[in-house]
Specification:
The protein has about 400 residues and is of the alpha/beta class. It folds into 2 domains: about 260 residues, 3-Layer(aba) Sandwich (Aminopeptidase); about 120 residues, Alpha-Beta Plaits. The protein is built from 10 helices and 16 strands. An 8-stranded mixed sheet has the order 1-2-4-3-5-16-6-15, with helices on both faces. The chain has a 4-stranded antiparallel sheet with strand order 10-12-8-13, covered by helices on one side. A hairpin with a 3-residue loop joins strand 1 and strand 2. The longest helix has 22 residues. It binds zinc ion (2 copies). The site of one zinc ion (ZN) has 4 residues, from loops.
Length: about 400
């Protein structure tokens, strides 16, 4: 695909990627990143329209085809970095102590900007391309915020796509799967309130310790860790405490924090109800008050058959190896909120067998997969829209 190579300024895109790496911002605080991206899109990459402030700091660039009819295809990437202290000697190492782009979202932004750069010089025949730079992916909040934003109604995509770089796979390998691609995740906080008493007279109070131990044992028995089976389910205990380090006092309150992972959305609801039913039983028997809170919710990505077919076609045109997953990836990714609502798919692009894992302190997005990833998006876009200049 000579036209893609000819149009792109990879050196510039790499510089942008490294600039983003050096200036990471946490979920929900991506103000500077959003301003920088908006400026690039309108000043350097000739977007027809740039929408700012989508679901807080989200940015969307729109590119129109020559004729107004045709579908709207949305490509999404993420703006946020992680609360991780980067360990590296990179020239463009994070300038923000304790914050790093350890998930490669800097790379994903550069990939979408690469598609923007290509679209600037290669107007599609019809339809619209929307490039969405989404905030707060890592907390699972951003996708829903964008979808709920009234400004998003004007975008109304027909098909949605996202990619994630995946260390542990060969560089440039395209990782696909129909149906569940990433897991449905919910985080559950159980707050137990009893009654303090003198440590010498624990029977005079209501100490939540035994209830917490019983709930932990109960959830262990519910786990089915094989992701290839429909009834896959993992309750992971994340954090727990009761009382204070006050040795004269028998604890009167405690908390138990879990993440729950399943394949399907309805399984998340079912399993949460099983946990809650048993927890209510345990706390009622012991006279404890129970409060339940939820956080960090990731909807499962469900990949549509046709969208995955197009991904395979694009990979084959570009002569890229395709890796077919037999089980969904083990993490949650909030693009699931999009694929629950719209037809589309997420796919992986291999980031190298020996590249450190995502969220590791020494991870860095490999710039040498930028071109392949951009070509994949160009190929997907043109598979819907047509383009006369493509060779
Ligand atoms: Zn991440
Ligand atoms: Zn990520």
């Amino acid at each position: 695909m000579q036209a893609v190579d000819g149009t792109l300024n990879l050196d510039y895109l790499t510089k942008i990627r490294q600039h983003l790496h050096k200036h990471p911002e946490l979920s929900g605080q991506e103000k500077e990143t959003a301003t920088y991206i908006s400026q690039l899109l309108s000043e350097d990459f000739g977007a027809d329209q740039v929408i700012q402030g989508l679901g807080n700091h989200g940015v969307a660039a729109i590119y129109h085809g020559k004729y107004p009819n045709g579908p709207t295809i949305l490509f999404r990437c993420e703006l946020d970095a992680l609360p991780i202290m980067e360990e590296s000697s990179l020239r463009y190492k994070s300038k923000m102590p304790g914050i790093a782009h350890s998930c490669g979202h800097d790379g994903h932004m550069a990939i979408l900007l690469g598609l923007a750069q290509w679209l600037q010089y290669n107007q599609l025949n019809w339809g619209r391309i929307v490039l969405l730079f989404q905030p707060a992916e890592e907390t699972g909040a951003g996708a829903m915020q964008v979808l709920k934003d009234p400004k998003f109604a004007a975008i109304s995509p027909d098909v949605v796509y996202a990619l994630h770089n995946l260390p542990g796979y060969k560089k440039g390998e395209i990782i696909v799967k129909e149906g569940p691609f990433t897991l449905a995740v919910n985080s559950i906080i159980l707050k137990l309130k009893g009654k303090t008493s003198h440590a010498g007279e624990p029977h005079m109070g209501i100490n939540p310790a035994v209830a917490i131990a019983e709930i932990i044992q109960f959830t262990q028995a519910l786990n089915q860790p094989d992701r290839r089976q429909d009834d896959f389910c993992i309750f992971t205990p994340i954090h727990a405490f009761f009382g204070e380090k006050a040795y004269g006092v028998s604890a009167g309150h405690g908390e138990l924090h879990y993440t729950l992972r399943t394949l399907a959305e309805e399984e998340i609801r079912k399993r949460t109800n099983v946990l809650l039913a048993r927890t209510h039983q345990i706390t009622e028997t012991k006279g404890l008050e129970l409060e339940v809170l939820y956080t960090d919710r990731f909807f499962g990505n469900t990949n549509a058959e046709e969208a995955v077919w197009r991904i395979r076609q694009s990979a084959s045109t570009l002569q890229l190896p395709v890796y077919e997953l037999d089980a969904p990836l083990a993490f949650g990714e909030d693009f699931g909120a999009f694929t629950q609502k719209y037809t589309g798919a997420m796919f992986g692009i291999g980031a190298g067998r020996n590249t450190p894992a995502l969220h590791n302190a020494n991870y860095d997005f490999p710039d040498d997969i930028l071109l392949i990833a951009i070509k994949m998006l160009v190929s997907l876009a043109t598979s819907y829209m047509g383009n006369d200049t493509l060779t």
